[in-house]
Every structure is written in C-alpha cells, then in structure tokens.
Amino acid sequence: MGQNCSRANRAETAGNTDYMYVYLPAGTSTLKVTTSGGTGTESLYYNPTTWASPSAFTASSTNTGTAQSLTVTNTTAGYRYISLYANTAFSGVTVSTQF
Q1: In this structure, are residues 32 and 99 in contact, taking their beta carbons and an 8 Å threshold?
Q2: Is the pTM of this model over 0.85?
Q3: CATH code, 69
Q4: What is the three-class DSSP state of 52?
Q5: Which of 8, 11, 14, 4 is nearest to 89 (CA)?
Q6: Measuring CA to CA, which residue among 57, 53, 3, 56 is closest to residue 32?
Q7: Beta bridge mates, 80
Q8: Is residue 42 part of a domain?
Q9: Total tally of structural domains belonging to the chain
C-alpha cells in the first residue's frame, strides 16, 4: 500500500489473516489505517518490524464489525506491516492508509 491508498474487496475466512504492508518514506511521522464497508468481523493489527498478527502487534483496533481504525505516531521510514484477522468470515472490506 502507499500514501493515501485504498485496497477494496478484501476478504478472508474465519480464523485466517489477510496480510499487507506499506512503505513509509523519510519524514513520515503519522500513519493512519482504517477499514470500512463489507460484511463480517475483522480486527486490524499493526507491527513496525514483522508481519502483524493477533500475537505480534504494537497497535490494534478490535471493534465489532468491519469499521476499524488505528493511528501510529512517531513512525520512521521503511516497510510497516498491517493485517486483518478474520474473527468471522469477512468480505468486501476496504483498507485505507493515510500519511
């Protein structure tokens, strides 16, 4: 994913994880990740050093449904990892990044 980017129609079956990454350029200080739309229930995870998961994250959003949001501050340049964990099967979800 990139700056002010969206990926639509994300889907995963219950108990599985949809992995994504974003590259943050030098000078980026804040990353915001949101999800919207679709059906089902997923949790959003972030990790600055390895694939994000329910057992390896530094920030998360675990609201009921498909509307998740997290903001990470004091970021540094490089690849950062985000994931959607399917609490129940989800489909049609849009993931957006802003920095």
Answers
A1: yes
A2: yes
A3: 2.60.40
A4: coil
A5: 14
A6: 3
A7: 22
A8: yes
A9: 1
Q: In this structure, what token pair is assigned to residue 70?
A: 């997290």
Q: For residue 59, tell me if it sits in a domain.
A: yes
What is the span of the domain harbouring residue 26? Answer: 17-91
Q: Which two tokens stand for residue 75?
A: 């970021």
Averaged pLDDT, 3-7: 94
pLDDT in tens, 9-42: 999 999 999 999 999 999 999 999 999 999 999 9
Of 92, 81, 89, 74, the C-alpha closest to 53 is 81
Percentage of residues of the chain with pLDDT beyond 70:
100
Q: What is the pLDDT of residues 39-68, one digit of tens each?
A: 999 999 999 999 999 999 999 999 887 899
Return the H-helix or E-strand segment holding 14: none
CA distance 41 to 89: 7
- In a domain? residue 98: no
Is 28 inside a domain boundary? yes
